[in-house]
Amino acid sequence: METKFKVVYYEMFSPAGEKACQKLVNDISGKILGEKRVTGAEVGEMLEEGVAKIAKTHREVYDTEPRGEIAHQISKALKQAGYGFHFNSYQHLCEGIYMH
Questions:
Q1: Where exactly are the structural domains of the chain?
Q2: Alpha helices, DSSP H only, in 1-100?
Q3: Per the confidence metrics, is the pTM higher than 0.85?
Q4: pLDDT exceeding 70 applies to what percent of the chain?
Q5: Residue 95 DSSP SS3
């Protein structure tokens, strides 16, 4: 069953880029909110691989706004699931509960 999340605007240059970012956030958030716990390293790897895949056709994913919004959405899911770490706008792992 696919988990549905609120659609967010990532400021990509095309609808296809927006869809790719939303899919990445949905996929990672689904794993975070799933029954099996994940580590910061696992989430970081999913994030890095997913962004690199998007960048093959949408280089703007590395711009400030898309990168930051992806990290924000992932961090919200981590907070919701009770994890004690989050990702900053540079998509680096940070200790502590997300405060936004």
A1: 15-95
A2: 15-32, 40-55, 64-80
A3: yes
A4: 92
A5: strand
